[in-house]
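ARCHIVE CARD
CATEGORY: sequence design from structure
SOURCE FIELD: tokenized fold
FIELD CONTENT:
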């Protein structure tokens, strides 16, 4: 954990979490977002480019992390900024990642993203087709599993360096049939080190769109993880959030910032409607007008070194309020 904390202080490292749009083509039953903000304006796009140029000479490492909404609804923005950053930081430590529902990630889009320096993809699946389609339909109520799965299969033939985390959501709704999805994953992606499974227990994060979902007990989760690992037979990596004991949340780090589609600067991708998460604004010239007191409040765990505060400063702050 010491090295992770040190990295969180390092002013020569920068992680920007960018929301090119806050709209989404899905309506997941547990989603906490309100979808009120649309595409990032050209003014904000140019301000981000100005920021990247202004910091180029004093950074050793730059990481662009794409989030939403569904970021691929604005894939032109993702490609534009990623291509700009890849050129500006050529020969330096530049990397990029994306959290996407995978619905628009066809082979052409995937290949273009990898060519811009995108190396990590996180795609969520909510169990077998029936359970997934019930939990993650489109905004029009159409099932999404088949399209996502087809796109995933196509990634196997892609060239270039990349890795894909299949974030498998487990809940009381999907747990009974989750092993059928695991068998599909092992059959199609086993023995390929570019793919891994990350098991995530579904919880209600609030928001007017979310539905309360009964949470699995720790005992049930433990048994399910053991059963899944047994089925994987070591052919594909399986991680869980409970094993990330030394995890330092991006929101705890002083060098990690969220830039929303309207140019507001924040820290957390969950607390989007929390005023404490508005720590400043991105200016046209690429500089930031930041509230240092708010920023330091999110980073208190770097100084307290309390694992719970480092792991999720939003939850820790909410419990302590």
């Amino acid at each position: 954990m010491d090295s992770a904390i040190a990295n969180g202080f390092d002013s020569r490292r920068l992680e920007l979490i960018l929301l090119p749009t806050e709209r989404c083509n899905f309506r997941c039953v547990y989603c906490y977002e309100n979808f009120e903000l649309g595409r990032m304006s050209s003014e904000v796009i140019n301000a981000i480019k100005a920021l990247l140029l202004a910091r180029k000479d004093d950074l050793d490492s730059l990481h662009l992390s794409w989030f939403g909404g569904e970021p691929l609804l604005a894939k032109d923005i993702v490609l534009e900024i990623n291509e700009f950053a890849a050129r500006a930081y050529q020969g330096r430590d530049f990397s990029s990642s994306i959290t996407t529902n995978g619905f628009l990630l066809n082979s052409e889009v995937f290949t273009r993203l990898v060519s811009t320096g995108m190396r990590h993809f996180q795609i969520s699946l909510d169990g077998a087709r029936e359970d997934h389609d019930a939990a993650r339909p489109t905004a029009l109520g159409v099932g999404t599993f088949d399209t996502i799965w087809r796109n995933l299969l196509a990634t196997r033939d892609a060239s270039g360096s990349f890795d894909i985390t299949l974030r498998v959501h487990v809940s009381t709704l999907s747990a009974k049939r989750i092993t059928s999805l695991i068998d599909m994953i092992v059959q199609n992606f086993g023995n390929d080190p570019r793919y891994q499974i990350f098991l995530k227990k579904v919880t209600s994060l609030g928001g007017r769109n979310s539905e309360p979902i009964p949470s699995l007990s720790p005992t049930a989760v433990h048994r399910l993880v053991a059963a899944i690992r047994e089925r994987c037979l070591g052919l594909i990596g399986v991680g869980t959030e409970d094993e990330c004991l030394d995890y330092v949340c991006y929101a705890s780090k002083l060098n990690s910032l969220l830039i929303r589609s309207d140019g507001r600067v924040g820290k957390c991708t969950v607390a989007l409607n929390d005023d404490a998460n508005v720590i400043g604004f991105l200016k046209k010239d690429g500089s930031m007008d930041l509230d240092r007191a708010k920023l330091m409040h999110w980073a208190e765990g770097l100084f307290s070194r309390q694992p719970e505060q480092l792991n999720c400063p939003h939850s820790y702050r909410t419990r302590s309020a």
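CARD ANNOTATION: The mean pLDDT is 92. The first strand starts at residue 13 and ends at 18.
SHELF: design records, drawer C
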